[in-house]
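Hey, I'm writing a tutorial for new members on how sequence and structure tokens pair up, and I'd like a real worked example in the thread rather than a made-up one. If someone can provide the structure for the chain below, I'll link this post from the tutorial.
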Amino acid sequence: MSKVKTACASCLRAGFTVQSLLVYADGNQTHAQDCFYFAVLYAAGIVNEFGPESDGVVSCIFGLELNSSVGSASNSHSALVFGLTCAGVAIFVISSLLGLYLWYDKKWEQQGSRPKLRPNTGSIWFKIQDLEKATDNFSQKNFIGRGGFGFVYKGVLSDGTVVAVKRVIESDFKGDAEFCNEVEIISNLKHRNLVPLRGCCVIDDDVNSDERGNQRYLVCDYMSNGNLDDHLFPSSVNQIQKQLLSWPQRKSIILDVARGLAYLHYGVKPGIYHRDIKGTNILLDADMRARVADFGLAKQSREGQSHLTTRVAGTHWYLAPEYALYGQLTEKSDVYSFGVVVLEIMCGRKALDLSSSGSPRALLITDWAWSLVKAGKVEQALDASLLRGGDSSNSNPKGTMERFVLVGILCAHIMVALRPTILDALKMLEGDIEVPQIPDRPVPLGHPSFQADGNNFSISPVLSGPKLQSGDMLR
């Protein structure tokens, strides 16, 4: 019986040796103890001539003392052979599995150009080496510009796909978990007028070998015609020489942005508030079709509720008053920003106009356009390039353009309740419903003035109307 025990002990020691290798290889994710028992039991059942129900299997695997002929030399010899064979087969089987795992892992590492799909999602998790290769190590020649929260580079993936890679340097995210959650939300948004998110890359803090530290990257489709601001307000000589946006192009862009926002607000559940609608976040593809981009500040809504926050994020001059002053975020906050963008497109002036003929006062486009409408001079609010004599009345219908201006003013109304939803705004733009009479825009008490380079910034001095009590704009 001592020989049998010795053989069984050898079998068990061999099994535990394989178990320790397995634990070391995968961090016990496969629960190597269970794997050990089943593998050895299976191997023992195969090699034992009497089958898996034999007492010999039970005595070896579980170390049980059973009634047997202790003095029988043949039984002792059979037990020794069985024990050694059991251990050998177990080691062979598990080692083969372990070798296959290591071979597959090494092969996967070598395929650096293939992105890794995160299970059950459409997000692609790129390796940093892929992005460095695509952007020529983020070279200056591939630098597109600085977008919201980071620097953007043009890149070409190994399959020839042209992408825009954004290195996120500041954001509203608290950590990698929240960042990845936001990526999951955005990656599931599929609409013609939204910039598709291809995936992301996250480098953890413990990656110190190349001193990269904690970095996050977003990979989106590349939009060859840049952003809306590049065409409305060119900043270089080369851009100025480009042809200005035509009326059909401006109309198409406004409708595209409205459709993209309508999808965010009503096409997904729960709805999503973009929070940063502005010209630089509206990209133009090769066909000059508009796509809403940069969801770094996007928030999912709570069903039937507005969102209150103590941290207001977004861009000045585009923020709705109730959000900027009181932190109340609703779908109408995006509508306000959309109205400002519509006025920029139709009037050819920036949201905050600093070029007012030497006046120390800077004009908000919402106040300026509203004052012209109330004076019956809507035509004067239109960009002069839209009214040039060379354009025919058929290609440049003044009535339609003026309607777009009125919708922009209505969307950017200071009071939430007087703004339309984005769906109603879209119907007004398309002429399906009439634009209601533009209501007065009361001036809030204690409206802040701004200091910049010694000049006082304020709303337009031509405004007049009933004073707005604190909190009224929230209704």
